[in-house]
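Sorry to interrupt, but I need a hand with the structure work. Could you add the entry underneath, on a fresh line?
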Amino acid sequence: MGRLSVEEFRASEKLPLTVVLDNVRSLNNIGSVFRTSDAFRVEHIALCGITATPPHREIHKTALGAEESVEWSYHEDTVECVRALKEKGYRVYAVELAHDSLKLGTDTVATDKPVVLVLGNEIDGVQESVMELCDGFLEIPQSGTKHSLNVSCAAAIVIWEMFKQLRVKS
């Protein structure tokens, strides 16, 4: 099927996109984000706070080895992680419902710099102190009775949208 080996993946050009998981509890959600990040060649995943890290059997169950291909790091404090990424020149977006959030599929995300997507805890979302550091907020338009999606589903949708916007420039 022409799939890359782990070594080829690691050596390949990546999407200028970093995913920050802010206190994500579910090991299955973490594994799913790894798998989606592998599919779209995300450059890095930052696991923050209570977010578990590989190696872990439950992460592997959904990552299916993507935790071996996608570069990742652990950070005790999400605020410090996001500050460091901003200092490196990244534009930071939280995936959250917020005043003046950009609606995926309608609004264009600024891609003149590498992008960081911050996804938050399954119950509480992205910490307010992290949101204060963000350059903007991304919203997935929804028309049902719920106002949120599972964090791994939201990550997949937003990573796909960023893949479409960022790959045109590469």
Strands lie at 15-22, 42-48, 72-75, 91-95, 102-103, 115-120, 136-139. DSSP finds seven helices and seven strands in the chain.
